[in-house]
Amino acid sequence: MEKSHRKCLAEAKRALESLDPSKDLSAPYITNTTARVDLDVILDLHKVAQNVWNVEYNPKRFPAAILRLRNPPATALLFSTGIMNVMGCSSPKDNKLAARKFARSLQRIGYKVRLYKYELNNVVAACSLGVRLDLNKLNIGKYGAQTIYETELFPGMTFKIFDPKMTLVIFDNGNIVFTGAKSQEDIDRALDFIRPILISHVKVSSSADDTSRSRDSRAK
């Protein structure tokens, strides 16, 4: 299994675990965002770990310092090169706010940092169509070249789309996880593309089949 494929499946699993059943799942809602930030400065991570609150740094295990924020809830991986990856926020707005707060914590200990380059590179969202899907049929049909469905490894199907470039993880209970988006607009466009395809692959229940056969029998 490719690394990128495993990453999508892991993101899908985390997204589903974070689903709030009280929310309206008919429309996608964002569960996580990831951004790459260039702070335009070289950092001494030992100094950061000693002077900034809520930092974990063990260079023997991982080359980055791990910073955590409570409001908004966020985690940052901070590298000595000045590159910072910000994740864990449930909206692009909160992600950028968290990046600014992490930067300010470095400014307080003397670093002249700035958000030189800020790029939102992954928005993860989830929704549910509320219907059962026949993923086996979808996997061998017209879009088979864009899908991977290995139920012995993972219960969801990955479906690659090209405009926007994203990977969807689709489950037979109608749940969809969107990965690789750059914005809410990307997610909305992906849903507009995939919804009619999935609706055409709704699984007919056995009870419905029985009813249909019974009607056919009476008609004869």
Structure description:
- The protein has a ten-stranded antiparallel sheet, sandwiched between helices.
- Mean pLDDT is 90; it is low at 208-214 and 216-220.
- It is an alpha+beta fold and 220 residues long.
- Strand 2 (55-56) and strand 3 form a beta hairpin.
- It is built from six helices and ten strands.
- It has two domains: 1-33 and 121-203, TATA-Binding Protein (2-Layer Sandwich); 40-115, 2-Layer Sandwich (TATA-Binding Protein), CATH 3.30.310.
- Belongs to the TBP family.
- Pfam families: TBP.
In percent, how much strand structure appears in the residues?
25-35%
Class by alpha and beta content: alpha+beta
Number of domains: 2
**Assigned CATH architecture of the largest domain:** 2-Layer Sandwich
The geometry reads as elongated
Radius of gyration: 22 Å
Indicate the low-confidence ranges by residue numbers: 208-214, 216-220
CATH class identity of the largest domain: Alpha Beta
Subcellular location: Nucleus
Family: Belongs to the TBP family.
Main location: nucleus
InterPro entries: TBP, TBP_dom_sf
